[in-house]
Amino acid sequence: MKERVIYRNATLLEGSDLKVREEAYLVVEADQIIDLGTTPLYEGMDLDGALVIPAFVNAHTHIGDGIAKEAGVGLSAEEAVSPPDGLKYRYLNELSAEGLSRSLESAIEELLRNGITAFGDFREGGVEGTLALRSIIEGKPLKVVIFGAAMAEPGQEGYLTEQEGVAGAAHGLGIGDVALFSETELASLKSLLAAGGKKLAVHGAETKAAQELCFNNWRKSEIIRILDFSPELFVHLTNPFPGDLEAIAEQKIPVVCCARTNCILADGLPPLDKMIELKMQLALGTDNLMFSSPDMFREMDWFSRLARGQSGQADIISSKEVLSIATLGGARALGLEDRLGSLEAGKAASFIVLNTGSLALRNCRNLYSAAVHRASPADILLVVSWGRKVFQA
Fold first, then answer.
1. Which of 206, 193, 204, 209 is nearest to 227 (CA)?
2. What is the pLDDT of residues 53-99, one digit of tens each?
3. Pairing mode, strands 351-354 and 380-385
4. Long-range contacts of range 359-364, CB-CB < 8 Å, 24 or more positions apart?
5. Cα-Cα end-to-end distance for the chain
6. N or C: which end of the chain has fewer CB within 10 A?
7. Which residues, in sequence order, are bridge partners of residue 389?
């Protein structure tokens, strides 16, 4: 018989519209929410009015880089993270298999502690790198969507053969530096992904230099060029050319915003205000663990403040919408919306319980804004991921 756990006397943000439900309960069986409502219950775990929000879906990470936290601050993106000679690759190349496993284990622990129930990872290291992450995640109450990458570079002998192996081991491929790919290579990558039902995710318009190189080589921006090969996900868009955002919006391709890491690498600010105005499908990612903690509270706060500051419109986006972008938006970007991103019967039991009586959150008059602008991992009382308690204060 499956174990049933009841969480009662809570304030829930329920459903895809995050409706506030006070004095509510939530019933979990195995890894699934089987019921929720407001009928008074007198058994189960009393949450004493605490705020329950959906667990986060972190749509873009490089968790392997946690082996060198803060090592690259002050370096440009090219010096810090560009293959094959960027600082992160020098650290990764020095790692033993055991060292990589320990680093990934530590990163997974940090993700769960911060209320992240699923993440999309751009996984370096070829087939071995992908299999290493699959091995670490096995049996843990955390879902990963892996976008793998070959160790060889575009144009090198054996590149396509290696990418075929990576695509077989991962959920898709993650690429950047669109200018470096030949038309044949891009067509081949898309063909092998389509054959296996896998996704193409792209670091797009991340740096001005990458955009300019692509235009000089192909007379197109990175975005317009790669759109010919039907990517399913874009990350960054820090430096779009005129028409780039409109083209993505028209095709309804999800975009993952990673403003904190874009800023510390001095790549610039993604035009969040324009993305919102175009009603683009947005998600949030904490990106490179070398530079940014996997803290989705910080990511939401940055996103919300930057969008308002860029636009000059205090009401360009609501706090409720920002919270939805960090939860259901991420789930949609990774193709997980049928199981994650909102508190609903039939979905995975993945949620965060926030202490609204904490020093930071007491006296807050807007629950959505409190979650987005004031809450932090320090305010978490409980994290349940796929039905399992992974943190309890």
1. 204
2. 999 999 999 999 998 999 989 998 889 888 888 888 888 888 888 98
3. antiparallel
4. 361/51
5. 29
6. N
7. 384
